[in-house]
Specification:
500 residues; mainly alpha; Serine Threonine Protein Phosphatase 5, Tetratricopeptide repeat; 2 domains; two-stranded antiparallel sheet; 2 strands; 55% helix; disordered C terminus
Amino acid sequence: MPIADFVKEIDAKKLKAVQERLKKEKASQKYTPDAKKPGVFHYLLHHAVKGGDPAIVEALLAAAADVSALDHEDSTALHWAVRDVGTPPKIAELLLEKKAKVDALNKAKMTPLHVAAVAGALSAIDLLVKAGAAADVSPPGGGGTPLQCALRACCEGALKPAVLLEVVDKLVAAGAKLTTKDANGLTPLMFLVESGRVAEALQLLERPNCGVDELDPSGRSLLMVQVASDQPHMDLVRELVAKGASADLQYPQSLDTPLHVAALKGNLALVTALLPAATAAEVALAEASGGAGAAIAEAIVTAGGDPGEAGMSLMKAAVEKKADGIAALLVPLLKPAVLTSLDLEFKTFIAAGLGRAAMAYVKRFDAEHAGDAPVDDAGNTYLHLVAESGGSYDVVTAMMSLGLNPNTANKEGDSPLHVAARGGHVEVCRALVDGGADVLKRNNKNRTPRSQLKLPDNTKDYLAEAEESFKAAKDAKKGALWDDKMKATQTESAFGLRVM
């Protein structure tokens, strides 16, 4: 009987039909989804695991399906069972009961625990650890430990920061060490900071034994790297000191300490942060933005509360009521853990319609890209990114009010207006045009925003109107200048006649 029919019954979760087939057919059949790609295959057990029905998986196992069978990537059914948080944990339990290899390596040099960590499958991590999976092992020639793989997934946007921290806690409890260095000689803390994930690094610092004085391949501590930076993250500097990082640890090549470097730079804020005299109250007041922000910080500290705890409800209210000004003031004041617990970062602020708060987040955690500096290899600014994803009129207006130029071009010569037009985001286009975007600006393909190919009708229609308005305003201005010139000429002629 065709295996394709068997697969259809597995997909349809027809348990009785599957059981009847298993009386006549082998449970360990190889399945190639696309005949044109014979090198891409898996087995019925893999397929049943993907389907997510424990009863069908159990039926295949009862019929002696091979739990060690490998797909074209050398992944076992257990790899498949833990790669998606939506897969019922019962399936992994069934496979483990049948002695599935808990440390089997696929071609990517990943064990099931690596896969579960990258996916953020917390229940699967618990099951694998209980079954004896090694939590701090980096396979020979592999891509790192499960924890290091989870960190990479977070930095690449595949794993939410809040879930990453839960993964970290589970792996550490199972024996993973926060001081283990990757192939580049970086600890998890160093890797997060180097990847620009300062908010997550600050939360990792709340965990014990995270290696605050470990040295990178150049022989510098993370504190020294920050102090020597042109744009040190002050939150990170203060938290490193608070967690015991030494301000007197010498850099082997120059014998300078972080405190020496800060003093040589004449950076009072850094020197103060490195000295024990800097109190929590002073830090809170120093960080507050503007008079209103300072008043909030002072009230919180005077009351003896924690800015993070006291500020959480205020930030919730600001987001719900779209109070962009208040949210922007709170961003530099609240602890990173509070922002993460509320799932607040640049993208979520934009989605909530809080443009100023979004840019305050960028200024705090990604200061080098706070203006019109490119944020990716394509030369896009944050305004390009919002134009691509879509945002409200108010968000775009708020971002431009903070100095972002609507006419900055990326490497393709596209302005944010070109990008918004292609995405069909009329409100973004309207805000950009009202903010001074050049409707006739041409990109590297000599296309204006409206003359780009395959534009959605809504943006094409709006840009046609915008171009007409621009040309009408230009003609009116030219006419006014001509009228003024004619009046001046007529006045001079009349004066000449009177003189004669």
